[in-house]
Amino acid sequence: MMDALLNALPHAFAPSSLLAVLIGTIAGLLVGALPGLTVTTGLAVLIPLTFGMDPLFALGMMAGMYNGGSYGGAIPAILLRVPGTPASVATLMDGYEMTKQGKAAYALQVAVVSGVIGSVLSALALIGLAPLLVKLSLMFGPAEYFWVAILGLATVASLLGDDLLKGLMAAFIGLLIGTMGTDLATGTERYTFGRLEFAEGMDIVVLLTALFAIPPVIQMIETAGHKGMSKELLNLRKQGSVLKDWRRFLPIWMRSSVIGIIIGILPGAGGSMSCYLAYNDAKQRSKDPDSFGKGNPDGVAASECGNGADNAASLIPALSLGIPGSGVAAVILGGLLVHGLRPGPQLFTEHPDVVYGFMLQMLISAVLLYFVGGLAATRIFGQVLRLPHVVLAPLILMFVAIGVYAVNNSTFDLYLLLGIGLIAYVMERLDYPSPPIILGVILGPIAEGQLSLALTISGGHPLALIASPMSMIVVTLTVLILAMPIWGMWKKRSRAAV
């Protein structure tokens, strides 16, 4: 591990790599600061633009956008009471109250420092834990990997949606899309509808962009206004120093980081859960819990630190096992596939410089965020909030169309982008989660291939799938994960009946 990490250092700290991280961090701040857009959307737009680039340069931009967008969402949450990203919802509870008290600059400073600390500790956890998880995964055979893929699908489908059934249906749609193309075992074409473009399956770039970039743009068009944010709220002056108050925030940062890292490792939990749990923990342990929601900076610190700590941690199971810990990690998995990098243990053996370089880039981007995302950058990106949606929407659509077309130089991809994007918008309005679809596309073929291999090795005996203790453990976890929301719904209905 140490040898691979040392060998990756020159690649991660190369001028081109640092430039990529800087570009990604700035772009992430911009995306996160725009209400309606998320880090997932930004990455979905970024991935097609990186097609043909050096993998480490592309991953550097993704790392920067991930950490930058995580903090960027706090800007409109604090200034406008509008969460820039779903994970910044808890931040607005105290952040906006501080703005009304004339402490917007201090609130933003608390947010960026807390986010940086959480992101740095999360990146260190990624560097330390991912290789260990890879060693554990080497004990897995085809049967175990099949159940791990099923576990990933079950976990994400049940945790990323309010409705378990809708989550499972979204995952099933992803599994169907994953079967498109030529079956490697038999050579038979499946669900290609006679189109040569589908011979190798659904293009992951088009699918990612359509699912995560088009629906938010349509929503922006629906609510398009001709006025942006008022100038008065953007009068940001330096107020106090968070670093001088470190003794006050240190316990909150430590506890929130631990919470965020644990939630990040759990597949499907996502940043929204980590920021809420960190916020609730800070409130419960506070000597003055009634002050939370009324402008207490501890609430901002806990929320943003937990949010930042979730980032790199969600990549631990993604890089080592191919099971993302969040929707953003799922999109990054798609980005790895676009550049010919298959997540899993083989990634650490076949491309050690790239994977360890990427983990170092997550650490670099977290540190860089402190300098780029300071008060000066906050002032600049705060001004972007004054742009009306009627201007932003067509600009985003233009970049999306250019990026998708550049992948294959195909107008068919543009029609596919529009069609899938409209379907994704309808599904979003009906509260169907999109991340399980991507996970179905990524994990479905893995599960199918490993199942075929396991049955071939065992001579077609299905009991071989549950013959090992590791398989039984993963199966039990899958059943428990699916049973927990069902149990919750049953208890809720039982109480309602009484």
UniProtKB/TrEMBL annotation:
Highest taxon of the lineage: Bacteria
TM stretches of this protein: 12-31, 43-66, 106-133, 145-161, 167-186, 198-218, 252-279, 318-338, 358-378, 390-408, 463-487
Keywords attached to this entry: Membrane, Transmembrane, Transmembrane helix
Cited Pfam families: TctA
Domain DUF112 span(s) in chain numbering: 18-439
Name listed for the protein in its UniProt record: C4-dicarboxylate ABC transporter permease
